[in-house]
# Entry
Amino acid sequence: MTTLLLIVHVLVCLVLIVTILLQASKGGGLSTAFGGGGGGSAMFGGAGAATFLSKTTTVLAVVFFLTCISLWYASRDTGTAPETAAERALREQPVPLQSAPSGLPQPLDQARPGKATERAAPATSPADTVR
# Structure
């Protein structure tokens, strides 16, 4: 289903691009290169080309947005996001447990909430006192 939606989406994109480029702008656009927009066209008439191309553009734009929403809805049914190679390598690689070497200081125990803690007074020397 997703493949069919993607094919329709790409085709609508291409036809929408061509339809927009064929429309006459203030400068004439590409429509004058294909015989439209100059003084009139045998196929559409004077104002018929602008009406036909604008209606076609509107319909194609609606189909484009519907296929965008459908592709989004179809892609979110997969359940999980795709995994990158780095995430897969991290998941598959065992993590070694590291223990602190015995020569390094160990972390201090955290004070318990109900227990009073002692604070040491700052050391003073005779050079620190001011007379």
Residues 48-75 form the longest helix (28 residues). DSSP finds three helices and no strands in the chain. The helical segments are 2-22, 48-75, 85-92. The radius of gyration is 37 Å.
